[in-house]
Design a protein that fits this description.
The complex is a heterodimer of chains A (273) and B (176). Helix content of chain A is 81%, strand content 0%. Chain A has twelve helices and no strands. Chain A has 273 residues and is an all-alpha fold. The model of chain A has no long low-confidence stretch (mean pLDDT 83). In chain A, helix 6 packs parallel to helix 8 and helix 11 runs antiparallel to helix 12. About 8% of the residues of chain B have low confidence. The chains are: A mainly alpha (273), B mainly alpha (176). The interface between A and B is large, with 36 and 41 residues.
Chain lengths: 273, 176
């Protein structure tokens, strides 16, 4: 036996699966070949060592979980069985309805296909228009919901909630007078500068509303915070509101006005005229 | 198993009692984590139930079961790779933390051996575990892995040789 063959047999040797004949052949070779002897000895040392690794025990929850799963599965399959028997009876009845001759079968299937196509066409025409009205209805409802949320948030005591209210109102597609009024009121009366600034931004989205433009011009005179003043002037210039010229001129007359705001207002005047 | 397949699912309990500790140890040696191993054992028995119709009885039940076990383990590794950040994957497995009080020579020996096993490439480790701990014949392992018996035998040979090498290296590192 050659060294190569010994290597091939080593796995069987370790597992104790060599027959008497092969075993004596291997032993004969090992007696003559120190290299193979050494290799096989170290292999079987490791093989034996592996035997000392203790078998570990899983925790008790494994068994509990297994039996829970088995129980759940049994219940599930019982239900499935009921379903199958129902399916079988159905297929039996369909089988009885089916005509025997192939020609009739083809005719029947053609009729069914035609009926299916026709029905589907009719349904799709009807459902398309129905879907359209449904979508518009839904859109309206969502808008209403946003309106209610926005108005109620704008009336809250906490500034962050009022800010949220402003951002909700900005999401409304078609704001009613109520939203516009509430936003303008927020712009004029809210004690918090950030909320007022957010209101300016939200109103910018609805500037084509007639009340908004007038409200913005009117609000300019009442504002005290330079930030809000700047933001209002920017907005009015951006939407090219000529009626704002008068309000701007009046603003510049104010001696207590912040110099930066004054500068912006003067620039705005030249841009508008 | 035939009975389980034919609808007597409660008979699975017998198979569970007979094999779950072996399976648990198989996964424990592969993953080094007890709770993961328990989850994987549970998953194996769940799949046995789910795919019981595909058991045809030509091969032994244990071969079929370990085929499922290997798939479960591969799926677990794939999921783990997605979830675990790269550096965590290379952390030392839990066996490295042997408490000082347990540092008796036999237990140190076992711990070093476990550590060496962990460093063996997956395929070699699997073949070795199946033959040495799960008491499977090479013929069965070959069937399970879908290859011929010769390649299993040579994998065993190489795996033990490599394991011995790692083991002595580690031992040299622990006891100067």
């Amino acid at each position: 036996m050659k060294c190569e063959q010994i290597r091939e047999k080593s796995a069987d040797y370790l597992a104790g699966e060599l027959d008497e004949k092969s075993l004596s052949e291997v032993r004969a070779h090992l007696a003559d070949c120190p290299a193979c002897r050494e290799e096989l000895e170290s292999l079987s040392a490791i093989w034996t060592k592996l035997g000392v690794l203790p078998k570990e025990q899983p925790s008790g929850s494994l068994r509990i979980r297994f039996y829970e799963m088995l129980e759940a599965y049994k219940k599930g399959t019982e239900k499935d069985r009921d379903k199958i028997s129902l399916g079988q009876t159905l297929s039996y009845w369909f089988g009885r309805l089916m005509p025997r001759r192939p020609a009739y079968q083809i005719a029947l299937s053609l009729i069914l296909i035609a009926a299916g196509l026709g029905g589907g066409f009719l349904l799709s025409v009807r459902s398309r228009s129905a879907a359209r009205t449904e979508v518009t209805g839904l859109r309206g409802e969502v808008d209403d919901m946003r309106r209610i949320v926005a108005v109620s948030l704008l009336k809250q005591a906490s500034p962050s909630e009022r800010l949220m209210g402003v951002s909700w109102s900005a999401r409304i597609d078609r704001p009613g007078d109520e939203i516009i009024q509430t936003l303008l009121e927020t712009l004029n009366r809210d004690p918090n500068v950030n909320v007022r600034l957010a209101a300016v931004d939200a109103l910018y989205l609805f500037y084509d509303h007639p009340e908004v433009k007038a409200g913005l011009i009117h609000s300019l005179a009442g504002q005290t915070s330079p930030l809000v003043q700047l933001s209002l002037i920017n907005l009015l210039v951006e939407i090219r509101e000529r009626r704002a010229v008068e309000a701007l001129e009046r603003l510049i007359q104010d001696e207590k006005l912040n110099p930066k705001v004054k500068k912006r207002a003067e620039l705005g005047l030249t841009q508008l005229s | 198993m035939e009975e389980v397949r034919d609808g007597k699912v409660e008979r699975l309990a017998i198979l569970f009692e007979r094999h779950h500790i072996m399976l648990f140890n198989f996964f424990l040696r592969l993953s080094g984590n007890r709770s993961t191993s328990e989850d994987l054992v549970q998953e194996v028995f769940f799949r046995i139930l789910k795919y019981r119709d595909t058991y045809h009885g030509q091969s032994k039940f244990i071969v079929w079961m370990y085929q499922i076990a290997r798939n479960v383990h591969v799926d677990h590794l794939r999921k783990q790779k997605q979830e675990v950040p790269l550096d965590a994957q290379f952390e030392e497995p839990a066996v490295a933390e042997t408490p000082a009080i347990e540092r008796l020579s036999a237990e140190v020996d076992a711990a070093v051996l476990k550590k060496a096993l962990d460093r063996l490439p997956l395929r070699k480790r699997e073949v070795l575990l199946l033959s040495r701990f799960q008491e499977m014949k090479y013929r069965e392992i070959a069937e399970l892995m879908g290859c011929d018996i010769g390649s299993i035998k040579s994998t065993i040979h190489r795996a033990i040789k490599e394991l011995g090498k790692i083991y002595f290296e580690l031992q040299g590192g622990t006891s100067p």
